[in-house]
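Illustration: Fosfomycin resistance protein FosB.
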Amino acid sequence: MKVGGIVETALYVSDVKRAADFYRRLFGFGTLLESDRLVALNVADKDVLLLFPEGATGEPFAVPGGVIPPHGGSGQGHFAFSIAAEEVEDWKRHFESHGVPVESVVEWARGVTSVYFRDPDGNLAELITPGFWAFG
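Result:
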């Protein structure tokens, strides 16, 4: 028995519409679900980025099949999206054309590159090329 991967990543944001618009505009993510409680964005047809309003998920939430337990987060989070190594410069230009500052670029061992930027809520997002984590 083993886990198959991470399906969802959740961010808690001050303005869900603003955050969703930012990720849609910057990455072209499609919307899987949009409600007063959350926005779920499609990341590469295999992962989901959940955007919750800060403080809005602190109570249990009944759904037709059961109850989602309370959860939440505060402060600036961090997550990373994978990109192809040959696209690093294209992504940096894409960010510049969308007015999104690149906060840092790190050249790691084994030729891996990370490009760091922040979303409107100050979450630190990263684009990283393959090879940083040695799996297998």
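Reading the tokens back as a structure: The first helix runs from residue 16 to 27.
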